[in-house]
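job 3f2a | input accepted
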Amino acid sequence: MDSLRKDSFRLDDLFSGEKLYSFITALLLLSGAYVLEHYANLYELEYSLRPTSTYVGDIVLDNIPVVDLNLIVIQGALASIVFGAIFVIFFRPRYVLFAIKVVALFIAIRAFFISLTHMGIYPGHVYPEPGFFSAIYTYLNLQTGFFFSGHTGMPFLMALIFWRERRIRMIFLAMSFVFAVAVLFAHSHYSIDVFAAPFMAYGIFEIARYLFPRDYALIDQSKKDS
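job 3f2a | predicted structure (226 res):
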């Protein structure tokens, strides 16, 4: 917590000079990414209803029981998004610009991938129960966007962003592992979706570092300014 008090960068700094333009750009990228994801999910849902979209065998799912872990898969995922956003905005403001842009890139690339290959839901899949949180989750995911797992990839991506802060890194890595196990036992994802997610997240992270060097450099300045 001492590092939080010593950090000279504050949330107000996002609303001045070049950082304001970068912040607006980040929000526009995030909005565009969600639009892409929305239409990719609609396309995936429509395509999944065709007779050609059947499920495939999976060596992992074929050998583990189906367990109702919707509390982790749905409520846990939504809670992690909310608390993760609050943490970055209010406790690590210098990470905001890069974090928003890399998340936008993650969402956009995943939208592209889920629109390419269309498979049916694995038999025995645990469906969300009716409710407010399930409705939000279903709208965002539509139960048809398989490759690659956002549950596994997003917290792993956050771990990469905060890699230099060991405690935070370990928390996000633990979250990634817990979500990976949960979606597999709930049969919400095929195993390839889960095991490929960290590699996809790492690739997206490196692309973001190349595309947004100034925003990433702001993170590098944390030790100098602390």
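job 3f2a | The radius of gyration is 18 Å.
job 3f2a | closed
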